[in-house]
Amino acid sequence: MAKKKTYGFRKFINDVHLWLGIASGIILFLVCFSGTFLAFEHEIKDLFAEKMKVVPTGDSKSISALTALIQQKVEGELTRVTLPSSADEPYEFTIKTSPKDRRGTAFYVNPYTAEILKAPKSSADGFMMAMFRMHRWIMLDVPVGRPIVGVATIIFLILSITGIVLWFPKKIKWKTIKPGLKIKWNANWKRINHDLHNTLGFYACIFIVIMAITGLCWSFEGYREGLGNIMGAKAFGNRGGGPKLEVKVQDKPAISLEKAIAITHKEFDFEGKTRISFPNERAQVYNISKYNEASFSPVAPDALAIDIYGNVLHKEYFNDKPLNVRIMSLIRPIHTGEIFGTFSQIIYFLACLIATTLPITGTLIWINKMKKKK
User: Fold this and answer.
1) Distance (Å) of CA 96 to CA 3, 109, 243
2) Among 240, 264, 312, 351, which has the highest number of CB atoms less than 10 A from its own CB?
3) What is the arithmetic mean of pLDDT over 192-201?
4) What count of other Cβ atoms lies within 10 Å of the Cβ of residue 51?
5) Residues 104 and 186 in one domain
6) What's the pTM value of the predicted model, to 2 decimals?
7) What pLDDT is recorded for position 56?
8) Rounded CA gap, 163 and 181, in Å?
């Protein structure tokens, strides 16, 4: 008499992996498919846009003169200026043109001719916006699409964990693990499909988990706050919030913008893009971020705060921050793959491409098993 098979832990994990995968397959396919394009979002837009370069002709105009010019020609509140590290790129001024313009509108200025340049429009803008809406809300209204994508992301996280459990054989030995590390291309299509799901899923798993953990910060506010409590730091670095600085009124004139830039370059003696937020009614302080081109992570700026009298109130190197603060302030580039520049973007692109195929190969495995049972 044949021994009746018991419903064990591994069978339970297999069923969880199977049915959650089938239930969320279409949504996960759309989210991952759009994610492959968003891994190189800026590069794709730049590819289909006119290059906005300036020709260095003699000395550049003073930054104060350019600031006064842009304020004369454009109505609104000038909030910041971004100075590129390259001489053939324009300066970028950000102006809040209306109360609804929360983040401000970018205006580009040729520092040699003082000409205001139009921001280049890319023919890929519409397509990339569609990919963004698909990735975040599967093309639905935000209140509807956001939680759907959030739940699908949680499922993807569970699928990744259960998938790794199933990847390991019952008896862990090198000869049983080795087949799971490669694809047997000379086998029949069913075996190749199984290997594509099993092997590629294993290699991409760690990146899928990172994307899922960070991506949930946009789906659920409670999750974002909870993750911040666990990590001991707020997600997104508190979105620009920094230490409260007290400026003492002094009997001397305020420094010029050129002087603030000179102090910045003295404090941060390296090449890189510099972003300067201007003093306002709330704080008489220049808040400055400078990006070190030689840094392994090009998206992590060092910060400096200078009051209107030229006193350095705060100076902070990004690499000197506690690890938990660094991680939480880089949630977005960690999620998108921009954290280490092109190198990490390529890895994320491949991981997203693999993740896109997993619902397809997984469904084919299930169909083949159903046919086999019949």
Assistant:
1) 75, 16, 24
2) 351
3) 95
4) 7
5) no
6) 0.87
7) 86
8) 14
How far apart CA 145 and CA 135 sit, in angstroms, is: 10
pLDDT in tens, 2-13: 566 677 889 999
- Measured distance CA(122)–CA(45) in Å, rounded: 6
Cβ contact 300:341 at 8 Å? no
96 forms beta bridges with 77
User: What tokens were used for 238?
Assistant: 């508190």
The one-letter amino acid code at 204 reads A
Euclidean distance between CA atoms 374 and 367, whole angstroms: 11
Q: CA-to-CA distance for 107 and 77, rounded, in angstroms? A: 12
* Pair (210, 255) in one structural domain: no
CA 296 to chain centre: 16
Q: Is the pLDDT of residue 15 over 60?
A: yes
Kindly state whether residues 111 and 138 are assigned to the same domain.
no
Range of the domain at 286: 237-243+251-321
